[in-house]
């Protein structure tokens, strides 16, 4: 399916508010700063990314330590397999004050939060950041998270998405419960707002009920930007209905290009314009002052920093399946997948990329090392060449860049790659708009409020 594409690629920074980046060995890198418990650390990274004119920085999250492997958190704690996760609303509050342009996103679960809470959190962030808020929608993945919220086991795969669909309906309705012109603020008459333009939602559904209205007026963006990363068929359909930006985990170019075409087709079939949704694979950039320097860095990341047990711990978390019962060379069979209720779509992508049997060691390495997405290695111009090839040949609308070490990975990219992308016209040289939707070239949605005006 052919689509007119944006001239410039989206640049998104994939963040963690914890001890390691997406690359689980990052905490061991000699240049990593262990400042993740200090507000100044996040402020510094935000300003660095803003200097590189990134569209957005958003934070991944889990609501539990990885504790599926061996039914214990011991290995996650021992090997630093992301046991630390800070509260993202506080982190984004710091960044809203420290930055002025870059979009600010956080992961919130539709399984363990309430729609009103999420709607209010992101509406508040959108106001306080002057239109820069984004919500990364997840359905959560494992029983460890369930057990932190008083439930013994996680919902099944399809039921999670059924619940998420209704969750988004409620949140969208709450965001629209104030019309843009609702606030009058007439000091003389004493009228603060027009009650005919503030609407109760009155939602009663299978999973949720919410009266409304929201206690936060309509936001600068109309609605915060929605991110989503569903990779299974059900997940792709969900993203097609709701997402403004879809980030993927495709390991190679051919898989990514096929995913891109499939996702754009699904978006069109859902009745939306595919041009209004950006699709960005997760990628690593390993940049050096010379090609040999970059390759030396890559070798260290691939061979020296990720402990195998950290890989297995994170794989068990992702798949909601205890891999302690398997050898590394055991195949990932359909029977095994039937027992795992976590993220399934990445297995299919890896099968297509490998072209054969996927074994436990393949999947574990894919999850915890630099194999999870494309890896661009070389000097600044060489990395820009590789990124341009993906962007110009129909595999993506931009990239979600994960860090190999913090904050140096982003510093290297901004210093050596961004100027090359800017020189080629593939990245902005300055922010033109003030909101995240403007950065991404997305329209401001019209209000679609429900119900009758409330009486006061």
Automatic annotation (TrEMBL):
CDD domains: Nitrilotriacetate_monoxgenase. Keywords: Flavoprotein, FMN, Monooxygenase, Oxidoreductase. The keyword Oxidoreductase applies. Residues 435-456 are annotated as: Disordered. Its EC number is 1.-.-.-. Belongs to the NtaA/SnaA/DszA monooxygenase family. PANTHER family: ALKANESULFONATE MONOOXYGENASE-RELATED, C2H2 FINGER DOMAIN TRANSCRIPTION FACTOR (EUROFUNG)-RELATED. This is LLM class flavin-dependent oxidoreductase.
